[in-house]
Amino acid sequence: MNHNTPLSPRPLHHLPTSTGRRVLTHAQLRAHGVSAAEAGAQCRPGGPWQQLLPGVVLLHPGPPTSEERLHAVLLYAARERTTGVPVQPGADGPPASPYGEVMITGLAALTLHGFSSAPPLPSLEVLDVLVPRLRRLRSTGCVRVVRASALPPPQEVTGLPVAPVARALADAVADLGDAGTVRRLLTEAVRGGHCEPAAVVRELTAAKLLSRPHVVDAVDSLLAEGRALAESRLYRMVHDHGLPDPCWNVELRLPGGPRLGGVDAYWPEQSVAVELDTRAPRPGGRPEDDAEWSEYARKREHLERLGITVVRIAPRALRDAAEQQAAVVRTALTASADRDPAAHVLVLPR
After folding, report:
1. Which of 23, 89, 193, 262 sits between 20 and 30 A of 29, alpha carbons compared?
2. Is 216 a domain residue?
3. What is the pTM (predicted TM-score) of this model?
4. Is 27 exposed, middle or buried (0-12, 13-18, 19+ CB in 10 A)?
């Protein structure tokens, strides 16, 4: 059997009319038996159809809905791979998504992810679509093409492939000059639990956006927001899992000696400290980031030489596996009885 045999032509009234499928490419129309000439005739002024984008047709007159615009953008970006011909059993078929590798990104993606600080879809004149770097595709009409050498795995939102939040944020910020808008978007990403600050910083770094002062300022606010949220989760973990109350947010110091640095929680009787790993390194960014990394490692090594057990916890682990992190801390507290006594240190408010 020839798996490439096209479908038998079907009359126009058999064309699908559900919301998402009221937008078809010329290739899909041909698979339904509609010739290019016939499609062109239907799209003439005053006709029942209209051409939304090159090679993409809306099967009704009047303005498209937001959903139809999104489908049209995706079909335009993936139209070479979208034929409308069903995959035969056992055949090598196209990717699982009917849109191939492409996905919605930027502000439209953030709106789909549920960001209240992103504009509603009808107000967006341009919709960003993420495509492989080597695709020969032009921005046109309501489509802005964003290229990437390595595409992230898309997330399905309302049946559409959408870029993950951190990538969508970077693509949105690349086109935003208003500091307030950038700050609100980044803050909501963390406060709303969409992603961790480190993931956002990685994407902004890869997009070379940390040379812009208003983006750097927003990132500083983002990191502060992330730390406050992580501290709140740490308090909740200790309380919910029945750990003994520690000294919170303290500075350790040798008697008559130097400062040893601050920790987020400390159990003096067991000489166990918890430190939140909220660093978000910016490769190729500011020189002080490298200094922060070095200081962080030096402090931990010094404390451990004094017999103090340091448990590092990432904010994401507190969010996704608080019970497991509580078990790690409890084990460290219990094991203290079997260790040599730690050096005496002063515990001061930070």
Report:
1. 89
2. no
3. 0.74
4. middle
